[in-house]
């Protein structure tokens, strides 16, 4: 049986572009009370900051150990499953799940030895579509429609609470692995998307159109597949061959 501490260590809370350092402190306290320690900050507006320390109310170790990153991809490095918390239903068309379902999925993944990230957006703008594109599902706390947005650290608290409740229930025997190979992590997926974008360019797939929308759609497609490393190697191989053939055919972009 997997120890709860091991499971908790595989879960991280990633706060993206947080404006108010007080919210970072409150989030640290929220996760610490529920047995979690791992906080990752992507482009925080102000950190470290006395307001963060004050609101952490003693959860200083979480703040001290917090990772600070310049990009979400960096904040997600090593993670295999990313769940994005969002108050708004966005145009990204990700599967939408409840915090309870998210907790179940997160713990099942952690029990398989995977690393899981719970991702939270900026206080005013939330998670952008481009940020949600790095996630495998969108988690919505079922607040009322006409006032749906929780304070950031309170959303963190709700999610951490659900994870805690799920962990307190008998830890299930780890489910069989989904793959016989290690699942791809966020960094490997990002390398794949770069290779894919470059290849589409090389084969002149876009024909002058801007690649942004198609790349977001392709990300969604491949995120849904939750590929393992062997599958990723195979796709890299296909892309490399397509690039080689495009080179031989002398495809030139107009
Ligand atoms: N106007 C923003 C609100 C941001 S609140 C929006 O619509 O997304 C800051 C963060 O707290 C959000 O990015 C999200 O991660 C989390 N959050 C707040 N309310 C939430 C809810 N009802 N469900 C899920 N996450 C929520």
TrEMBL record:
Give the multimer and partner information.
Homodimer.
**Subcellular location field:** Cytoplasm
Q: Give start and end of each tRNA/rRNA methyltransferase SpoU type domain.
A: 11-161
Report the enzyme's class at the first EC level: transferase
Q: Which organism is it from?
A: Rhodanobacter fulvus Jip2
Any one GO biological process? tRNA nucleoside ribose methylation
Protein name per UniProt: tRNA (cytidine/uridine-2'-O-)-methyltransferase TrmJ
Signal peptide span: none
Its Gene Ontology cellular component terms are: cytosol
Q: Which CDD domains match?
A: SpoU-like_TrmJ (cd18093)
Instruction: List the lineage, top down.
Output: Bacteria, Pseudomonadati, Pseudomonadota, Gammaproteobacteria, Lysobacterales
Listed EC numbers: 2.1.1.200
Gene that codes for this? Answer: trmJ
Q: Which UniProt keywords apply?
A: Cytoplasm, Methyltransferase, S-adenosyl-L-methionine, Transferase, tRNA processing
Answer yes or no on keyword Transcription regulation.
no
Query: Which coarse location class describes where this protein primarily resides?
Result: cytoplasm
Q: What's a single GO MF annotation on this record?
A: tRNA (cytidine(32)/uridine(32)-2'-O)-methyltransferase activity
Free-text function comment from the UniProt entry: Catalyzes the formation of 2'O-methylated cytidine (Cm32) or 2'O-methylated uridine (Um32) at position 32 in tRNA.
The record ties this protein, via PANTHER family, to: TRNA (CYTIDINE_URIDINE-2'-O-)-METHYLTRANSFERASE TRMJ (PTHR42786:SF2), TRNA/RRNA METHYLTRANSFERASE (PTHR42786)
Q: Which family does it belong to?
A: Belongs to the class IV-like SAM-binding methyltransferase superfamily. RNA methyltransferase TrmH family.
Q: Which reaction does it catalyse?
A: uridine(32) in tRNA + S-adenosyl-L-methionine = 2'-O-methyluridine(32) in tRNA + S-adenosyl-L-homocysteine + H(+); cytidine(32) in tRNA + S-adenosyl-L-methionine = 2'-O-methylcytidine(32) in tRNA + S-adenosyl-L-homocysteine + H(+)
